[in-house]
Amino acid sequence: MASGTKGVARQEERQIRPVPFLHTTSRQTPAAEAEPGGTAGDAETATLPNWIWRRYRSRDNRKGRHTIVISQQSAANNGVSHPHATDTFRATLPGLWRMASMFPVFDVSYDVAIIFTLGSVIWVINGFFAWLPVQWPSTEFDGEATAGTGITAFVGATIFELGSVLLMLEAVNEKRTDCFGWALEEAIEDQYHLLRPDPKGCAHHHSVRHGLLSTGESEAGKEDRTWEWWPTWYELKTHYFREIGFLASLSQFIGASVFWISGFTALPSINSHLSIPASNGALGFTACGALGFANSSDAAAYASDLSTFIGSLAFLIGSAIQWYESLDKYPVRLVDET
């Protein structure tokens, strides 16, 4: 397989470090400089050309994703078949089908997405209980504004707390070394070449299919992987405190913990006994909490209830996108450069 000199993608090798004292969050390097992919001893694996680029992002690394950038013209000139670009309709449909047909429960990134989606559904229900009686008083039933909102708030906040714990586990079990995740194979007696995902050559913990907390088996091209519940103090100082993904997950966990406390106090038997200063400490969603200070006003109370519903719906949309993302392990971006 020739590396190809026509239509070489003018993609610069670059790194992005938005915060100077933290690790690089994104980098793009020629795939030819990464591991070729494919299992060890695979004679059919071809040399990677210089018009395929590997794009690393810290978030993709935590999610076990392997993004590549391909020069579309160079691929055509060199007879290389490749998957459709991720942002096309033809690639989106299989992604939606994966959401309905794949259930990789041993993938912590999938579990995080599913749990946050479930929690968001509970909060949308909570938003209905809070907003509908104000919008249409005739729909209100006994206990809707107290038991209905209180119980769903507690359940939803508890689910978010569980999701945040898994998010922390995802962050501390990221892949430390590079994992290309693609292979270029000869096909049909050298008539063309096929660029394909290479799950067997992937060293991310997401590829383990026999247990969420298990140790990965030693396979060709893989390192032994041991699940970590929490990094050592040395790892925290030298790596994780400089890793933006870990810091973001830690912030999410702290916020979810505070949110869970407010959800706990929303239970009817507790909320009815709170003093005014104590009830004002539960901010929840920002808009809902801010408007809660003026709940003596009917307009502010209505806006607060509505913001709870809108915020929950927005969180549900984001969680569904995260669900889609957790199953899309091999994103493809095509560029037209000559």
Automatic annotation (TrEMBL):
The chain crosses the membrane at residues 108-131, 151-169, 244-262, 274-294, 306-324. Residues 29-44 have a biased composition (Low complexity). The keyword Iron does not apply. Keywords: Membrane, Transmembrane, Transmembrane helix. Residues 1-44 are annotated as: Disordered. It comes from the Eukaryota. This is Integral membrane protein.
